[in-house]
Amino acid sequence: MPSIPFLRPTPDVEDAPAEVDVYDPDAALEDLPVAPVGRWGPDVLGDGFTARTVELLPDEDGPVVATVVRYRPEDDPEGPPPTPPRFVMLHLHGWNDYFHQRELARRCAADGAAFYALDLRRYGRSLRPGQLRGYVESLSTYDEEIHAARDLIRADHPELGDVVLMGHSTGGLTAALWAHRHPGALRALVLNAPWLELQGSWILRTLGQPVIERLARYQPTAALPLKDLGFYSRVLAGRAAGAHGEDALPELSPEELTDPAHTGWPIERAWRTSPSAPIRPGWLAAVLAGHSQVAAGLDITCPVLVLVSDKSLFGPRWTEQMRMADTVIDAELTARRAPGLGPLVTVARVRDAVHDVLLSPAAVREGAYRELSRWLRAYAAA
């Protein structure tokens, strides 16, 4: 199979994280809370956050659900002063992820958003024991839960009209394709480091896609022999002493000690695993099909904001420079693809940002939030 840089077989490298953790994320799912069906209940994020389970149509593997998370600043002692919202925002996470960004909800609420997030089927709060993590064979499958979330939002805020959809990484690709298929359905679209193209240009996608499609046809759920080196998880875990077996680390400044980008973002290990779940041909074929659509050009009719790092850094060995770059997608390719999404696209290159731009160190993400706030005032909150 052709080498795909985002998913390349793991070489023997001495700097790869040691496999010493015996934590079993699949077993841990049994003990995690499940949001109630048909009503809002407490969420794992605590005060100000509630969640509800949405039952979806069963597929060939059985029952599936999605989970909608709602943020209410009036119930959050650490949130912004409650004000009447001027628009609604719905967030879609990426691969091997779920919604956990309290700061994002609070910042968007301060900008006038009624904020919601969606844990897609087989991810995060919506993952049930025995399911293949994140597995779908078409990104359009997610239309069902996006539409269900939109119905719940409209029930809460019938006066606010169309939604601002926000997507990160694979969720950004899903959001872009949804917006293309549903012209006029969104007020605006925000893409945070969307995965719009394979690293190495269209040549690798063209050479690799026929092979992946053949595997997807005959062995769609087989685990591909590819391994996650864990470098992005290491970025998100911060620089706390001993977190990765380092003998000595630079002391953190007082400012860094209050920044989760340095001390580690609080993430549920069963919902965002390290290493990530196996990559399966059926899922990868769905992503490559989405990339092909993006390469051909989309026609997203609403305003689009693309936030992406100013650089990427890939390699077989860990380096501290990875804390100041996107180590997952090719930021340059993303920026080049972005203008083809529609007629009104703003691209903001954020210096020293990591893959999730809004999980970068405080000074970096503060600049990204300024860009996001200014853009929302112009296109969403007006």
Q: What would you say this structure looks like, in words?
A:
The chain has 382 residues and is an alpha/beta fold. The chain has eleven helices and nine strands. The protein has helices at residues 25-28, 102-110, 143-156, 170-181, 202-218, 231-236, 254-257, 260-263, 281-296, 331-337, 362-379; strands spanning 41-42, 49-55, 65-71, 87-92, 113-119, 163-168, 186-192, 304-309, 345-350. The chain has a nine-stranded mixed sheet with strand order 1-2-3-5-4-6-7-8-9, sandwiched between helices. Helix 4 packs across helix 9 and helix 5 (202-218) packs antiparallel against helix 9. The protein starts with 24 loop residues before the first helix and ends with a helix. Mean pLDDT is 90; it is low at 1-20.
* Radius of gyration, CA atoms, in whole angstroms: 20 Å
Q: How would you state the average pLDDT, rounded?
A: 90
Number of strands: 9
The strand order across the widest sheet is 1-2-3-5-4-6-7-8-9
Q: Tell me what portion of residues adopts beta-strand conformation.
A: 5-15%
SSE succession: HEEEEHEHEHEHHHHHEHEH
Main β sheet profile: 9 strands, mixed
